[in-house]
Design a protein that fits this description.
Blueprint lengths: L13 E5 L9 E5 L12 H12 L9 E4 L7
Antiparallel strand pairs: 1-2, 1-3
Length: 76
């Protein structure tokens, strides 16, 4: 029996946020589930590569990621 692949929902409700350690550098947001699990199969190639890059550089360029709730457009 095969396990169901880990995939992200069509419209992400949460983002895994990688905060940069240096001021002025850009952070990175990756769609994830409420527990921070990333559906790699649902990501495009660039976003998947960005995720692996950020994950590899935790402690050097990025702080440990946090899970953030996505706010719908127009929500304050």
């Amino acid at each position: 029996m095969f396990a169901k692949p880990d995939t992200a929902p069509a419209e992400a409700t949460h983002l895994l946020h990688f905060e940069p350690l240096s001021a002025g550098d850009a952070g990175l947001d990756i769609p994830c589930d409420p527990t921070g699990r990333v559906g790699l199969d649902a990501l495009g190639e660039k976003l998947r590569n960005d995720y692996f890059f950020a994950r590899t550089l935790i402690g050097r360029l990025f702080a440990r990621p946090t899970v953030r709730l996505v706010r719908p457009l127009g929500a304050g």
